[in-house]
Amino acid sequence: MAVFYMWIFRWKKEGSVPYAPKFVMIAAPHTSNWDLPMTLILSLAFRMKVFWLGKHTIFRPPFGGLFKWLGGIPVDRRQANNLVTQCIQTFRQSDRLIMIIPPEGTRSKVRYWKTGFYYIAHGAGVPISLGYVDYKRKAGGMGPTVTTTGDIEADMMQIRSFYAGVTGKNPHQWAEQAIGVTRK
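^ thats the sequence. predicted structure below, dont judge the formating
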């Protein structure tokens, strides 16, 4: 069904699923409500069972049950809840796990990406797959896999170079320079 949808709307699936049984997948750029359905359609097209982090408010009725069934994990950003530690534990307890995280943490334009995805991958000892949805080219999929080194600035430079030229649904919301270490 997902492949049929992509064919009808002339979208291309690019790349391949990493051979790793567990990994964090970045979902970027995140500039529109359409990013979630496109990411889930691409996941189905790649035949991946995924889990994804989303703002707790989207899990309210009438769609909350459906989103959880589709692998959604509600995150309440208003309170500190050791989400990074919880995700690391989940990876350690799982034989297979693909966790999708939008690093912007919002559809709005941000100055810097949140770095939780990096610390989850590094702490769990799993790679980061560079997932994308490029609305200009009508293409989405998975780019290279990055293994964290612990040097977050160098690793983010590598990630930034991949996303150069990727166009979100709302390009004015996407700031390639936001791919970096969060500044306080």
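The chain has a mean pLDDT of 87.
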